[in-house]
UniProtKB/TrEMBL annotation:
This is LuxR family transcriptional regulator. Residues 257-322 form the HTH luxR-type domain. GO terms for molecular function: DNA binding. Keywords: DNA-binding, Transcription, Transcription regulation. SMART domains: HTH_LUXR. One of its GO terms (biological process) is regulation of DNA-templated transcription. Pfam families: GerE. PROSITE patterns: HTH_LUXR_2 (PS50043). The keyword Repressor does not apply. The keyword Transcription regulation applies.
Amino acid sequence: MPGPQLNEIILKIYQSCRGLPVHDFKDWAMTTVRNVVDFDSGLWATAQNVVSEAFNSVYLFRQPWEMIENYAREIGIADDKLAQAAIANPGRTMILHEVVPYDEFITIPMYLKHGRHFGVEHALCTCHISSVSQIPTAISFYRADRNRPFSEEDRQAKEILVPHMIEAMRINLFASLLGAEGRQGEALAFCDAQGVLYETTSAFTALVAAVRPDWRGPRLDWPSLPLDGVNTTRWSTGDLTFEASPCRDLFLVRAKRENVLARLSPRQLAVAEMLARGKQYKDIGRALGISPSTVTNHVNQIHERLEIRKREELVELFNSKLH
């Protein structure tokens, strides 16, 4: 089993992640974990979902970008038995030669059209799915020497390391772009121009899930108007209000629950509050110095603005917004 050195590396990752520039973190982390699991090159990528070949982000460690282009052109997930095994076993690190025996591996397209061109003789692959955003992340380590296969101890060490690497990267992203404290208590997220989430705070996911129980991520309800990468854009969906501000090549999204009662005028709010307390129209009119017919007009407008039909719905709104 992995020993004390692994614990030291994990501690080092957390101690250092807040102070590193965001664009340097993955390279630093991959270099650091080589002290525990030695490898020659690697990949760190996130995708829109576990079956998608459209990556949100890709970082290659000591590999050229041609590796991704060649993979998309020649292989893909459909012919990648290691990726399939990792996706089928999220959180578990898979050893290539246990999925495909080495003697077989060197005869199939995965090796002949791809692996041998990029020094991939042996590989460890882990698929981690975020419990917060449901975003899948794949981290792979490669060795170029066919005589140095990864061991079971290597596999166990990587399996322990990967969730810590991903969590430290999330801390690094928020700390780097929002300040040292990272504002983890706020409902914040980073996404791309299509509304696909990269990272979220737990408060963001909890808020969206509370208002939209059917939401599973990783895509937001995105505004129909294009985001120009310069100006802040605001929009609402249901009881949620979003604000997206350009932040380098991503967008920082703030979410908050809309106070729907703010849609009412002061007089409508006064009528609504008394209506919610069980007052009759004539009592409301007497208290506000208006006729019952005017009260009726206000009630109709209240129902329209709040998109409700019954007094019970109004009572529920007041209970949730004011108490």
